[in-house]
Amino acid sequence: MPVMPFPSSLSIGTDICHIARIQRLITRDAQGKSLQRFGRRIFNLYEQPEFERRVEDVIERHGREQGMRKLAEWLAGRFAAKEAAIKAIRSRHITWHDITIRVPPGHKEKVAPQMVIAAASASAFASMKTGTVTATATAAIRKSMEHEEDRDLEGAEARLSLSHDGEYATAVVLAVDKG
């Protein structure tokens, strides 16, 4: 009996990240170079300002030691979310920098973050800035569309669920993968 293909182009990606591992990575030196290097590797240009503001705010509010723990928790969630998005869209060549995750404008931290995948057009990011993107956990993937097969991802949305429990951060992404 032949196997029937799944009747939808929906795909799920999931990832789990050990918070202590991220904390070790970002606290390797006292000058904060490892934290900044991690931020540059994981976050794209749209996310960098939020990352820098968060680092300053968290360390100012909690002190260096406790602040680095809080940052590690946040970073582990973002890392897991980006890895889950990459797994959800396996047929494409997306990277961490092709994925933008942010809290919707005008909302505080407790609302589900948005995720934007391969939104090469500035309009997808403009809608995030103006708040026209829904406040649910939405993902858009940003990508320079150098591969013809990736063009259908331009401005794609996905759903993101993040969770933190004890020493772990987990993420699940539901996305369309037409590949």
Secondary-structure blueprint:
Elements: E1 10-18, H1 19-26, H2 33-42, H3 48-88, E2 99-102, E3 114-118, H4 122-130, E4 138-141, E5 156-165, E6 168-176
Helix pairs in contact: 1-3
Short descriptors:
179 residues; alpha+beta; 6-stranded antiparallel sheet; 4 helices
Structure overview:
- This protein is α+β, with helices and mostly antiparallel strands and about 180 residues long.
- It contains 4 helices and 6 strands.
- The model is unreliable at about 120-150 (pLDDT under 50).
Q: Structural class, from secondary structure content?
A: alpha+beta
Count of discrete alpha- or pi-helical segments spanning 4 or more residues: 4
Helix proportion? 25-40%
Unreliable stretches (pLDDT < 50, length at least 5) are 119-151
Strand content: 15-25%
- Run of helices and strands: EHHHEEHEEE
Global mean pLDDT: 79
Shape: elongated
Question: What is the CA–CA distance across the termini?
Answer: 24 Å
Number of DSSP-assigned strands: 6
Largest beta-sheet details = 6 strands, antiparallel
Radius of gyration over C-alpha positions, nearest whole angstrom: 17 Å
